[in-house]
Write a sequence for this structure.
């Protein structure tokens, strides 16, 4: 069944369910927030998020792994110490606390003060080996879908101002962040690179202090302040010469097992923070369900050039734009996937930018001739979110025949059906999708370098941009490393390279 037919069969009831999961953003002057607990759509997973300024947050309970939140309610709220060496960008401590107070007090496995980094990838310019052992756990790419203009002798928009950094850590933990410099040029590129590194370094310094999921929210917001501080730090005489950037990043933490363990018990939590229009998604391998951890982060953007929020000097005395800061979490199980993307990716899954008419989404929308006619912002964003998630799930689960045939030829055997869902394959499919969708517009601009691309999303679908996607697979990396080492030792032994006594001495104890 086509995506359009699947969506039209959802009906308004499904849309209303999705609306409950959209974060309701308001201004900084809004009074204290309230938390709603809606009913969840089938097979949904736990996810809650909060935006700066007092919006509502949604909580979607898991039918697979029911969680008794009352067990984790604090009798007394924790008092968190402010970060050292930099000022918080949040002027109101109470509103800052409201951003993460909805996070549960699930206990996590404590990390060491300086956790060992098993593997790191960073870009946009990064030479990754798809045959590397860690490629089955983390993979990312940053590309440009802009045209190559003969009048410039270069690709439009170069250099790529997106960035990513993903670290796999011991104790099955991880840190991941994606940044997107606002506009083009050296300023946004510098801001993007500084922010991704500052975010990862700050979280690495404080991971050992996280005892429960809620603690992560505090340190993620501190990381946002630290990123802004580092962006401005290099411009003491002229702060406005610094660039700005959006950011979405988070930490993957192993949960302490409950007393009663079942196969469906959540084993990890991914806790994230976002500012701007990057997005994070959680795909459940067990249920085939996906949720947008950043739902609603673009609903109050003024126009297509407004990213909704950014780090770096932007307001008044050089403060960042905090309109749509969100803190979210989602509980995960083994083999789940975390995707973090820039708008250069998710805009190419937006039905409006793909030339899809809103009146084809069901009988209740035939009265609308354009997306702008649908004045209910919640409903409009909900429809787009459903379509986007539907398309992403299809891309995750369904490799085309040519890709599967190629893999059989390359690897000389019929791979496991899950092979195409590993980070390497998924990232490459998403990038290929973005390049394909924007192909017609890119070709037109290369043939008409001094003209403006016609505003016709049917003939020229998608949005050309810098496009970045990072994928983190939730998995017990340490166990996989041990198995890999054992396989290598057995291989050496069978080839005569390792004796039985060597095997005995090197066996894990």
């Amino acid at each position: 069944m086509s995506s359009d037919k699947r969506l039209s069969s959802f009906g308004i009831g499904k849309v209303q369910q999705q609306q409950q999961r959209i974060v309701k953003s308001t201004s900084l002057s809004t009074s204290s927030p309230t938390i709603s607990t809606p009913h969840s759509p089938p097979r949904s997973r736990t996810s809650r998020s909060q935006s700066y300024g007092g919006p509502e947050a949604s909580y979607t309970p898991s039918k697979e792994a029911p969680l008794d939140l009352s067990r984790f309610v604090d009798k007394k709220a924790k008092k968190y110490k402010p970060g050292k060496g930099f000022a918080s960008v949040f002027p109101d401590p109470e509103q800052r606390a409201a951003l993460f107070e909805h996070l549960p007090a699930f206990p996590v496995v404590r990390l060491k003060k300086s956790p060992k980094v098993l593997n790191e990838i960073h870009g946009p310019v990064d030479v990754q080996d798809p045959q590397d052992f860690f490629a089955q756990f983390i993979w990312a790419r940053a590309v440009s879908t802009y045209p190559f203009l003969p009048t410039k002798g270069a690709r439009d928009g170069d250099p790529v101002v997106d960035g990513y950094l993903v670290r796999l850590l011991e104790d099955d933990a991880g840190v991941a962040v994606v940044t997107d410099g606002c506009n083009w040029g050296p300023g946004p590129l510098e801001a993007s690179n500084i922010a991704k590194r500052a975010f990862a370094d700050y979280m690495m310094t404080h991971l050992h202090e996280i005892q429960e999921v809620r603690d992560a929210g505090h340190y993620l917001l501190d990381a946002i302040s630290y990123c802004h501080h580092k962006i401005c730090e290099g411009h003491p005489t002229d702060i406005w010469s610094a660039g700005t950037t959006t950011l979405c990043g988070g930490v993957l933490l192993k949960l302490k097992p409950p007393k009663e363990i079942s196969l469906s018990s959540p084993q990890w939590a991914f806790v994230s923070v976002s500012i701007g229009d990057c997005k994070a998604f959680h795909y459940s391998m067990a249920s085939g369900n996906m949720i947008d951890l950043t739902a609603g982060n673009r609903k109050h953007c003024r126009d297509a050039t407004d990213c909704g929020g950014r780090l770096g000097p932007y307001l008044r005395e050089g403060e960042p734009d905090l309109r749509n800061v969100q803190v979210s979490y989602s509980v995960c199980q083994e083999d789940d996937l975390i995707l973090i993307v820039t708008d250069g990716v998710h805009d190419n899954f937006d039905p409006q930018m793909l030339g899809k008419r809103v009146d084809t989404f069901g009988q209740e929308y035939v009265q609308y001739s354009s997306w702008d006619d649908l004045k209910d912002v919640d409903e409009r964003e909900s429809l787009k979110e459903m379509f986007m998630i539907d398309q992403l799930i299809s891309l995750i689960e369904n490799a085309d025949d040519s890709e599967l045939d190629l893999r059989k030829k390359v690897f000389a055997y019929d791979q496991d059906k899950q092979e195409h869902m590993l980070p390497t394959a998924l990232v490459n499919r998403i990038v290929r999708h973005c390049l394909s969708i924007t192909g017609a517009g890119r070709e037109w601009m290369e043939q008409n370098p001094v003209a403006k691309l016609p505003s016709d999303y049917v003939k020229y679908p998608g949005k050309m941009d810098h496009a970045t996607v990072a994928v983190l697979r939730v998995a017990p990396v340490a166990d996989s490393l041990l198995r890999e080492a054992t396989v290598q030792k057995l291989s050496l032994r069978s080839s005569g390279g390792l004796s039985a006594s060597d095997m005995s001495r090197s066996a894990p104890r």
User: Anything to note?
Assistant: The mean pLDDT is 80.
